[in-house]
């Protein structure tokens, strides 16, 4: 058992064990690309129109490695700190990589797991350091715990819960997961595993990949052979089509199987990201207009920042994604139409390392 109440009580902090529950099923999570602003087409061969048909085939996918990060968050109680009544949030975090062998079979290559407790940061530093030391001595089934203090600034006005305070804790846990993804990517690069014909797919948007870890800048060259794949995306983005007020979601349903959009440029925090959309399933088999469409992203390196991506590279990446879509996980996951199978297997491998919600919450006393 965690005995968190005793650890906090020893430092004079009241801990109230209110109803424990999974936050992921309680709070609506917005699209990862909610605030994106594309500003131009960003590939070398600027083809006319908003839809590009892929021609020809490639004999083998460019991808060999598949990375997924996942987290589960829980409200486990409340505390009174710095004259505020604030929540305590716990979480399970994991990052995994699977590799495809030469014979086509999938292998579990890497797994990193940690459990976390996130409390409001306004605790005396010495007390916070001692709480951290005690929590980080705890292990459950060989998986360590870590303390992640979160900060929260009350919005102007009287309603301090205008934005859920829990979201600040969840954002802190999400950042920890992103840091773990960067560290695992760094390990792959240092081992010289990634190549132009043995690339890595990261499940999710690349825009949240940290630019710094512990104050040290992340070298964007880590992403040379990396593509991000998002199963969900914001269909209301504007300013990228010929009619500037037209939303991207108005053209995506018109994509036929094997068609993509041009690459669009998206600058963020000193990085430049190229993003495009690809239909990987026949529209006639879909329930919803955006089912079977994925969003792909690549971080621009060196001269790509100025010149954009080689159209031939983007086409070959897109053709590789089409090769990855089968065997499908039809019926096993509500997002099946936007899944590629190796990512689905990596997710299953990672999530099998998590404790059930009931089991995990029973540890939080």
Order of helices and strands: HEEEEEEHEEHEEEEEEEEHHHH
Radius of gyration from CA coordinates:
22 Å
Identify low-pLDDT runs: none
Largest sheet: 12 strands, mixed
Structure description:
The protein has one domain. By secondary structure, it is of the alpha+beta class. The model has no long low-confidence stretch (mean pLDDT 88). Strands 1, 2, 4, 5, 6, 7, 8, 9, 12, 14, 15 and 16 form a 12-stranded mixed beta sheet that branches. A two-stranded antiparallel sheet has the order 3-13. The chain has 7 helices and 16 strands. It is 22% helix and 27% strand. This is NurA domain-containing protein.
Question: Which properties best describe this structure?
Answer:
two-stranded antiparallel ribbon; 7 helices; 365 residues; alpha+beta; elongated; twelve-stranded mixed beta sheet
Concise account of the structure shown:
With 365 residues, this protein is of the alpha+beta class. Helix content is 22%, strand content 27%.
